Amino acid sequence: MKRKSIIAGVILSFLMVSATLMAPFGSRGRAALLASGRPPANPAEWEHALARVLVNDPTLPLAIECIREPRPDIIAPPNAKDPIWARARDVAGVQSRRSAKADLVATVASIDLEECDTLPAGRYRHWRVIARTEETTVLPAWPERDSLLRRSGRDLAVELRRRSDAAGLRCRLFCAESASSWFAAMPPLLNEVSTDTTSPLIGIDVDDEFMGDARGGLGVHDHLLVPSLSLRLALCLQPATEPFVLHDETGPAMAMITWRSHYEGGAYHLPWPRTRGTMLLVSPAAFESLLTWGAGNLLIREVVYGDPSLADGADG
């Protein structure tokens, strides 16, 4: 908690300095409008609108920073030379090549929802893990060849899946969602969500517009997970005052935590995390409700994904 307070203080100080440095822009902007014969009707309101454009809003980065926890004790994504990459390449029929995108995807495990992990400690002790994603950067053997950085990831998530359905087993688990859904109230809907289908229940944030320029700021985290509309309807989840925590009729029912680890330092750059992860948790009561709703059609599937060149076994 003390560390987070220090970080928040540093960010606040930075914003105050930035506002001081950018103050002349407001007066010069008004002067330019006057010179062009278009004086602002309300100078204070005009400067406030300009400040919203120039100054980063710290609300979202700080909210994300507040849910950061130490990395849990989980299996790391596979490294280069792991046999899983060669098997994934053979199954997919993809030619090994360097790519900026992760093209190799393989399902490595599938279990009943009842067997999912339980968080052993912390604020959410005894809550059940229904989704997790972790991505790590695979370093080249020669540090100067940083253009050869490759990414390897491991996903795990609950999904609706009929037992005999093999569709999508070579795809990642998440649908496209926006992190803004964590803050949006759920309107009452009359239609019930069918469980007799195969469908993802967890999304991953792809909304750059919602994040704005905050993605380049302190505390902003990639790979934020988002419960799908179907999952929120099934558990009757609504946002509360605390960011990234959803409530049902009895109280907190779903939460997200994040982590960063395996920092790389150097004489010519600031330390940066090689590994980033996100986890979705549900309370014991919400988990029982989820089991009842799923009617036996809910599975936890685990997937690995990575750059095709990882199958070569080359160190770069």
What secondary-structure arrangement, pairings included, does this model have?
Elements: H1 2-35, H2 43-54, H3 59-66, H4 83-92, E1 104-112, E2 128-138, E3 150-160, E4 175-177, E5 199-200, E6 202-205, H5 208-211, E7 225-227, H6 229-235, E8 238-239, E9 245-248, E10 251-266, E11 269-282, H7 284-294, E12 298-306
Parallel strand pairs: 4-6
Antiparallel strand pairs: 1-12, 2-3, 2-11, 3-5, 3-12, 6-7, 8-9, 9-10, 10-11
Describe this structure in words.
The protein has 316 residues and is of the alpha+beta class. It folds into two domains: 2-55; 72-312, no CATH class. It is 27% helix and 28% strand. The chain contains seven helices and twelve strands. It has helices spanning 2-35, 43-54, 59-66, 83-92, 208-211, 229-235, 284-294; strands spanning 104-112, 128-138, 150-160, 175-177, 199-200, 202-205, 225-227, 238-239, 245-248, 251-266, 269-282, 298-306. The strands form two sheets. Strands 1, 2, 3, 5, 8, 9, 10, 11 and 12 form a nine-stranded antiparallel beta sheet that branches. A three-stranded mixed beta sheet has the order 4-6-7. Helix 1 packs across helix 2 (43-54).
